[in-house]
Structure formats: C-alpha cells, structure tokens
C-alpha cells in the first residue's frame, strides 16, 4: 500500500479500534505493533493499581534488569568505556538468558570491586606506613646525632678545663643512674594538614603540656586508606609518659582521624621494616594491576553488547506495560485492547496482526474492528525534519483540536518573514545562513552527539533558522543594508548632486536624475537628514499592512474551520461580523496607506482616522484622498457599530433555540464539532443533565466580543513592534559600524585598526547575531501566538502518541 500524502492543514483522520488478541500471540503482537508505531493504546484497567495488574511481576523483573544495566553502565563510565555501536555476536539472546547473564556479571563485578578496594586500601596503608618509617626515622636519627654531639661535648669538658660558662648541673645530669631514668613512650602516624593545628592544641590541653609533639609535612598529597581521597598530611611523633597519657593520645588520634602506625627506635629494625613494606607494596601493585586488567577486559566485553541488552530490556518492559493496559475477555483466553490509529494505517495494522499470528503458530488470529465513538480523537500530523520544528512552535502554544485548521502550514512562511522584517540586513542574514548551513551539512554526525542545551536547541531548529536567514537576506536587500552599509546592487541611484563637486548637497539637496531604483530602498537615502523620517514612515505603514493582512488570514481560517465542522452559527454570527468590523476600521486604514503611496498625497492619516470617530460628517479638506471618502467613512463606521451587537446577541439566542428544539425531539444535531466549550458542554448534556445555562453562554459571548473589539485595536498596535525592532536593529548596526569600525580606521594605526575590527566582530556577533536574533524570534513568536492564532485556533486537543519502539527514551526507567 502506498504511503498517504502528507497533509499539514488538517490532522490525520483517526479511528477508535478494538483488538482481540489470543493469549499465545499477545506478546509477539504487541511487539510487532511497537515496531510499526501506528497504534495508541487506551488503558482499560484504570481502576487497578500498578501492583494489581496481570503483568506486574514481569515489569518488576524488567525493572530489576534495568537496575543491573544501570550499574554496569556506571562501572563502564568510571572505567572510561562507552557503550559501543558494534554489532554483538549474540544477536538472538532471550530475556531469560539475559537475566541470568546480568546477574552473573553483577556478582562478578561486585566481587572484583570489593577485592580491588580491599587491595587498594592495603596498598594505601602500606604507603602511609612507609612514609611514617622514613620521616620518623629521619627524626630519630637527627635526635640521636644531637645526643651524641652533646655527649662528646660533655666528655671534652671533663677532660679539659671547665669553663665558667659550663652548666653547673651538667655532670650531675649526665651521671644519673640509668635505672632511675624515665622511659618515654611514643606514637607515630599521619594526620590531615588542615587539622594539625587543632590536633596539637587539643593534645597540649588534654595532657596539660606533658607530651612532646614533632610534625613533618609530607610533600605530595597522600591517598587516605579510608576515604580514598587525596589529602595533604603531616607525619607526627608524640612522646608521652605513663599509661594514662598513652590512652589520651590514642583517643585524640582516633577523634581526628589520624592513622597510627607502629614504629621502633632501633635503626636496624627500621631498615628491615622498610624493606619488608617495599616488597609488600610491589606485590600489591602487581596484584592490583592484574585485577584492573581483568576488570577492564570484562567491561570492554560488556560495552560491545550493552546497547543490545539495554534495548531488549526497554522493549520488553514497554510490551508488558501495554499488556497491562489490555483487559481479559470472559473466557480468559483472549486479551482485548482499544486504541486510536490513523484510518490510512488500517491495512498495515491488519497485516501486522496477521503476521504476528503466523509467527506465533496461533490457531486463532487477532481481530481488528472499528468502534463508533463520540470521544474526540487525538491530533496527528505527518511531519518531516523540515516541518517538524515549525509544528513544534505551534504545539508549544497548544495542540490543535482534532482536524481544525493548523497554523503550522502558514507559520512555515509567516514566522521567518516577520522575523526578517525586524532583522532586515543581508549581511547579518548571510552570517546566520552560513551558521545553519554548517548544521545542515553535518546533521547526520551532529544528531548522534551531545551538543549541550543551547546548541541542541539551535540544532533542532536549524531549518527554522535557515528560513529566517533567507528571509533576512531578502528584507535586507529591500532595506539595502549590509552591516548598515548601502550598495548599488541593482543599478545606480536615482538621485545625484546638482553639480559634480556636490558642494550644495547638504543645503539644497539631491535631484532625481534617473528612473526609480529598481529594487528596495535607494542607497542615497542612507546618511541623509531625511533618512530616519522616511524609513520610519515606510516601516510603520508596512507593519500595519502586514498586521492587518495576517489578522484577516486568521479570521478567514475561522471561516474554513466553521465550514469544515458544519457550524453555520459561527459563520454568520462570528466570522461575518468580525471580518466586517476589522476591515471597516483597520482595513480602511490599510486602503488609505496604499492610496497615499500610489497618489503621492500629503494627507495626514492620523487626522483622518481620529476625526472619522470624533466628527464623521466634517469636511476632510486637504486630507481627502479620493472622491466620496467622507460618505464611505460614515458607511464603514455604521458597519463597525452594527457588527458589535451582531457578534454579541444572536449566537447565544440561537444556541438556546437549538437546545430547546433538540430537547423536544424536533431536531437532532450533535454539536461536538463546534469550537465553543459551552457547546461541548451542551453535547455532553445528552449523557447527563439537560440544563442550558443561558447566562453563562451569554457572558462567555460578551467576553469574546469585547476581547475581539479591543483586540482589534491592541493587536494592530502590537504589529508596530515590527517597525520598532527593525529601526533598533538598523540603528545598532549603524552605531557599531560608524563608532567602532570607521573610528578605528580613522586613526591610521594598524594596532588600533585590529582592535577596532575585533570589537566590531564581537559586538556584531554578541549583540546583533545573538541577542537581536533571540529578541526578534520572541517578538515573532508573540505575534503568531496572540495576534494570529487567537483569531481561529483553539489548541485544546491532545497529541497522538502511538506505541513505538523508535520513541523509547534513553532515560526510561
């Protein structure tokens, strides 16, 4: 069957279908429908909690497997591996086999990690022990050297003449009986450097100064055995006397997280211990390296098959989730499902069901039958990579009601065009186009990379930005601005000086010597005293014309909506008065603008429009643009006044009459297709109460009428943002060019010129190409959402989300 043509104006015709699937082929049928991706299932078990459903155990099982896969992915990430896109050798792995395999891999990795952590901790402890042996050994060695030097000095004093400066008690001190000397104990270890001052202070206070502390800083950070973090530490040796002092010192060391290590003051034993520790470190390092190699090989093997396993688990979980939405028939041998699908996909779904039954060797095939319903179907538009971004702009405001006119069709042209009216500069447009051209040419590669939030957004809207850039080049050629510089691209200017020297150009002005410049603004306008008044007048009037045209388009689309849904009330009592009211006032203003441009009249349009209301019968005088203008204005004013009650009163009365006739059985006409929420409530009354709240309908219509009448004025004024943003963009570009680039050029200095060029580029990119682009984008967005779509677009539908494996989220849990 050939694929249906893409239609963006109306959403795809949908149908509610029922599937009756035999139990033996249910799993395979749902899997095939997931591959097809054209059926949106309805939950028929809403009254049951997730734990009460038939396949809750299978979903829990898949959730556990997903947890193990997340654990494996975390381990791969820590080891520096990423899931590979290589084809796996085992392409037919089943869920049961995968469950066993994942359990074995998790256990193996947990065991390997535990052993590795244990070995690493021992390695770090030995490294600290070695540092203590080295640093404390140096301290004891230096202390013994000092003691030996003092001993030699004493012997020299005894042998020679005693100096008057010699200590009187030295002989007594050195000749004390060794048995009566106090034996000092000591504790050695490492403490964090940031805690060393507090550590010393607490030791002093707790022992009342009866300890001696010696600290030496370790040059490089040390890996702490407990936390595994790199910490700057000090080696300490604490000398104390007595058992109570030892207990206090030990407790303080534990409180400060200081790691204590045994140490002997025997130099021979010190060297022996250092050699033993070095040997153990070497052995541990070898063991750790072998374990890391084994772990890396295991994770590398997992990375080759991870994507296939992950996809299988996600598919199985989504299949059981859909199976839980189906209900059992009375025989408990079949599953019954309901859901929405496009009418054009009927044959594809039937073929898929038939294929699933054949592959399952089922004796009974699945049944597909269409159900009749008054429920509003979901909205589905077939989009491609070009139109999808424009459709997303519309959907951000609200999803279209089923088969109402889609603004996305017109947004493809009007959105970039209104953006370009505010951004008109073909130099800036060219820069935007080259940037998006890079995205488009490399889209296959970039679509599989993580680009960051801002770049991801720009890449997703690359075709929108491309259209914006192309229209900006077009409007820039009309404005004749290339980074605010005009060019004679389409011929010579129509104006010139009166003489060759142009001495009187600033006083007398230029004269027209040739035909009108063929395309866009004449380059001679730029830089003249009348440039700003001329461009202001041009862009302001152009903004009003564009605004009235787009608002008229919105009202015309409301007519096509009403005609499509067969709602004559909305045609005669909403569309007709709205089009009359808008064009009687602002359509007439647009006519005056065009007549003034064509005739070259000097009429003051502000005066004409103001006195059209204040004094409609007064003589126009010099402001008359054509014969019979006064009488036309009076007629249009009367039309506008009549249109207001036309919008307000008939529609609620006719809706009440329709309701009464239907209630008496004289006429039956479902109103589910109308665009008013109150009419939807009337339709729903068929299934409940029969009340018709005339006051609510009238108040709603009253608000709607006031909103349109006031909106006609405010929305027209809102389109003046096209003029304001265009003027701001042009003036900013001119300031950067004149006050940065030309100013730097005037210094005749290469360094200043280079700095000026860099500042000009940064200002152009940062302000004009980024900030101004975002500003014009948001203003164009507002004009479409508020001024255009409010005229016809309800946007109260809901999207068609078919069950599809292609749309499985990577972060699904």
From TrEMBL:
Keywords: Coiled coil, Hydrogen ion transport, Ion transport, Membrane, Transmembrane, Transmembrane helix, Transport
Residues that span the membrane, as ranges: 417-441, 462-479, 542-560, 572-595, 631-649, 750-771
Protein name listed in UniProt: V-type proton ATPase subunit a
Stated role: Essential component of the vacuolar proton pump (V-ATPase), a multimeric enzyme that catalyzes the translocation of protons across the membranes. Required for assembly and activity of the V-ATPase.
InterPro entries xrefs: V-ATPase_116kDa_su (IPR002490), V-type_ATPase_116kDa_su_euka (IPR026028)
Record-stated family: Belongs to the V-ATPase 116 kDa subunit family.
UniProt membrane topology term: Multi-pass membrane protein
Gene Ontology biological-process annotations: vacuolar acidification
One Pfam entry name: V_ATPase_I
Keyword Coiled coil: yes
Signal peptide span: none
Domain of life: Eukaryota
Organism the protein comes from: Coffea arabica
Main location: membrane
UniProt lineage: Eukaryota, Viridiplantae, Streptophyta, Embryophyta, Tracheophyta
GO molecular function, one term: ATPase binding
GO CC list: vacuolar proton-transporting V-type ATPase, V0 domain
Compartment list: Membrane
Coiled-coil segments: 95-122
């Amino acid at each position: 069957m050939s694929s249906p043509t893409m239609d963006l104006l109306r959403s795809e015709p949908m149908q509610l279908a029922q599937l009756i699937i035999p139990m033996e082929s249910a799993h395979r049928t749902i899997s095939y429908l997931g591959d097809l991706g054209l059926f949106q299932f309805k939950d028929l078990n809403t009254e049951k909690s997730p734990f009460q459903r038939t396949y809750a155990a299978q979903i829990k099982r898949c959730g556990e497997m997903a947890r193990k896969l997340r654990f494996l992915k975390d381990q791969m990430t820590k080891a520096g591996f990423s899931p590979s896109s290589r084809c796996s050798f085992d392409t037919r792995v089943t869920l049961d086999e995968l469950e066993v395999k994942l359990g074995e891999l998790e256990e193996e990795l947990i065991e390997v990690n535990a052993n590795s952590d244990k070995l690493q901790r021992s390695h770090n402890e030995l490294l600290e022990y070695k540092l203590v042996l080295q640093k404390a050994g140096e301290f004891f060695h230096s202390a013994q050297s000092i003691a030996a030097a003092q001993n030699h000095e004493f012997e020299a004093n005894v042998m020679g003449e005693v100096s008057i400066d010699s200590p009187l008690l030295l002989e007594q001190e050195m000749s004390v009986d060794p048995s009566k000397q106090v034996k000092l104990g000591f504790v050695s270890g490492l403490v964090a450097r940031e805690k060393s001052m507090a550590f010393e202070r607490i030791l002093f206070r707790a022992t009342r100064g009866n300890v001696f502390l010696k600290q030496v800083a370790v040059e490089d950070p040390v890996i702490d055995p407990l936390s595994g973090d790199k910490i700057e530490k000090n080696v300490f040796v604490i000398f104390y006397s007595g058992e109570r002092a030892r207990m206090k010192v030990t407790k303080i060391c534990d409180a400060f997280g200081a790691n204590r290590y045994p140490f002997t003051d025997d130099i021979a034993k010190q060297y022996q211990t250092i050699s033993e520790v070095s040997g153990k470190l070497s052995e541990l390092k070898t063991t750790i390296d072998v374990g890391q190699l084994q772990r890396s090989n295991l994770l590398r093997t997992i990375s080759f098959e991870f994507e296939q396993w992950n996809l299988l688990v996600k598919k199985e979980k989504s299949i059981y989730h859909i199976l839980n939405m189906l209900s059992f028939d009375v025989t408990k041998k079949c599953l019954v499902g309901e859901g929405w699908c496009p009418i054009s996909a009927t044959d594809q779904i039937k073929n898929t069901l038939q294929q699933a039954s054949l592959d399952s060797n089922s004796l009974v095939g699945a049944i597909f039958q269409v159900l009749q319903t008054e429920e509003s179907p979901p909205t589905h538009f077939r989009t491609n990579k070009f139109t999808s971004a424009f459709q997303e702009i519309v959907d951000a405001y609200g999803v279209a009601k089923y088969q109402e006119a889609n603004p996305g069709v017109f947004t493809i042209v009007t959105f970039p065009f209104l953006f370009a009216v505010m951004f008109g500069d073909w130099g800036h447009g060219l820069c935007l186009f080259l940037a998006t051209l890079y995205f488009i040419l490399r889209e296959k590669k970039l679509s599989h990379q993580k680009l960051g939030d801002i770049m991801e957004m720009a890449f997703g809207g690359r075709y929108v930005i491309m259209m914006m850039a192309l229209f900006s080049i077009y409007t820039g050629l009309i404005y004749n601005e290339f980074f605010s510089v005009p060019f004679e691209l389409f011929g010579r200017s129509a104006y010139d000086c009166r003489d060759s020297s142009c001495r009187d150009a600033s006083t007398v002005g230029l004269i027209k010597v040739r035909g009108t410049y063929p395309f866009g603004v004449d380059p001679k306008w730029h830089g003249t005293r009348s440039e700003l008044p001329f461009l202001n007048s041009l862009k302001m009037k152009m903004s009003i014309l564009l605004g009235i045209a787009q608002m008229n388009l919105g009202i015309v689309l409301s007519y096509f909506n009403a005609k499509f849904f067969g709602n004559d009330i909305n045609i005669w009592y909403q569309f007709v008065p709205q089009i009359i009211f808008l064009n009687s006032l602002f359509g007439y203003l647009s006519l005056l603008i065009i007549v003034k441009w064509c005739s070259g009249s000097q009429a003051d349009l502000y005066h004409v429009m103001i006195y059209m209301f204040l004094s409609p019968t007064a003589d126009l005088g010099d402001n008359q643009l054509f014969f019979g203008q006064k009488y036309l204005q009076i007629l249009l004013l009367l039309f506008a006044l009549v249109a207001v009650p036309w919008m307000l009163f008939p529609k609620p009365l006719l809706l009440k009459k329709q309701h009464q006739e239907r209630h008496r059985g004289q006429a039956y006409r479902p109103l589910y297709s109308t665009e008013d929420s109150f009419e939807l409530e009337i339709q729903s009354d068929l299934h409940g109460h029969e009340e018709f709240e005339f006051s609510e309908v009238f108040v709603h219509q009253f608000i709607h009428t006031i909103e349109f009448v006031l909106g006609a004025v405010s929305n027209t004024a809102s389109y003046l943002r096209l003029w304001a943003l265009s003027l701001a963009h042009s003036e900013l570009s001119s300031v950067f060019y004149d006050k940065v680039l030309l100013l730097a050029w005037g210094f005749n200095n290469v360094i200043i010129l280079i700095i000026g060029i860099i500042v000009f580029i940064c200002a152009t990119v940062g302000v004009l190409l980024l900030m101004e682009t975002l500003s014009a984008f948001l203003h164009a967005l507002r004009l479409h959402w508020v001024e255009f779509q409010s005229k016809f677009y309800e946007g109260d539908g809901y999207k068609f989300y078919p069950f599809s494996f292609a749309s499985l989220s990577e972060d699904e849990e």
